[in-house]
Design goal:
Blueprint lengths: L8 H18 L8 E9 L2 E4 L6 E2 L5 E3 L3 E4 L4 E6 L4 E4 L4 E10 L4 E16 L8 E4 L3 E14 L6 E14 L2 E8 L2 E6 L2 E6 L15 H8 L42
Parallel strand pairs: 9-10
Antiparallel strand pairs: 1-4, 1-6, 2-3, 2-5, 5-8, 6-7, 7-9, 8-9, 9-11, 10-11, 11-12, 12-13, 12-14, 14-15
């Protein structure tokens, strides 16, 4: 008889249990263990919190992960470069949650979902399928079409301004069933009461943190639309009442509101 069968049963059971525990430890990694991008640049301080983890400082070349909450301090800024080349910037005192990121470099397919809680942001698309990108604020949802755009979210109300620099976005709101198409050179205001589209280039100076990793962002940085690289954020404070803040960038060339607006 094979000597294997001479071991007591309790020893065999103990071995099986130990093997099961070992397999759970070396099994497939969770999303929180797989980097989905890196920190491209930081101004002053920024912080990240992964699911189940503690809040830690973020530095250039640090990894970012699905489910991570990312925050910047007052006058701070952060630029994230995702694995597909998408660039996402946070301005001063901004907060967002990276709800989901999946990307297959061979097929260019995947999914990206970001929840912009408050502050100023800039998004420039990479190689990921545009139909798979879903961005949201407390009052708006944003779908993209090969796009470079800025977003300002009021911390108190969630009211949102979205300015398109190139391409187009499709904006939905809780107050309207019909999404709005916003094209380059336009911006849209979104609140709990509804939406309104205006023509007013560069109503905000979008966040710019160091040299851009994206060609489109780099071009707009050179022409003065990229923002103040020393502070990481625009000069328009999304916490101010509409019409009360002064912005830089381009001047308004038309539309029903001035270029100095910010969310209420």
């Amino acid at each position: 008889m094979n000597s294997f069968y001479k071991f007591p049963r309790w020893m065999l059971r103990l071995g099986v249990l130990a093997l099961a525990i070992l397999l759970t430890q070396i099994g497939p990694s969770s999303d929180a263990a797989n980097p989905v991008g890196t920190v491209h640049a930081v101004s002053l301080y920024a912080y990240g919190t992964i699911p189940g983890g503690t809040r830690t400082a973020l530095y250039q070349n640090d990894y970012v992960f699905s489910g991570q909450v990312v925050e910047t301090v007052e006058k701070g800024g952060l630029s994230i470069l995702f694995n597909d080349g998408t660039e996402f910037r946070l301005g001063s005192a901004a907060s967002m949650t990276l709800d989901k990121y999946v990307y297959d470099g061979k097929t260019k397919k995947g999914a990206l979902a970001i929840n912009m809680v408050n502050g100023m942001f800039r998004f420039t698309t990479g190689s990921i399928g545009k139909e798979s990108v879903q961005l949201k604020t407390p009052v708006a949802t944003i779908g993209i079409r090969g796009t470079d755009f800025g977003v300002a979210v009021n911390k108190q109300t969630g009211n949102t301004l979205i300015q398109v620099f190139s391409g187009a976005v499709i904006v939905g709101s809780k107050s309207s069933n019909a999404p709005e198409l916003v094209k380059a050179g336009e911006y849209i205001t979104v609140s709990a009461q509804g939406t309104s589209i205006h023509t007013a280039p560069y109503f905000i100076t979008p966040p710019s943190v160091g040299p851009s990793a994206n060609v489109m962002s780099a071009e707009s940085d050179r022409d003065g639309s990229g923002g103040d690289t020393s502070s990481g954020g625009g000069s328009s404070d999304p916490g101010n009442d509409a019409g009360s803040s002064s912005t830089s960038g381009g001047s308004s060339t038309g539309g029903s509101r001035s270029s100095t607006e910010s969310p209420q």
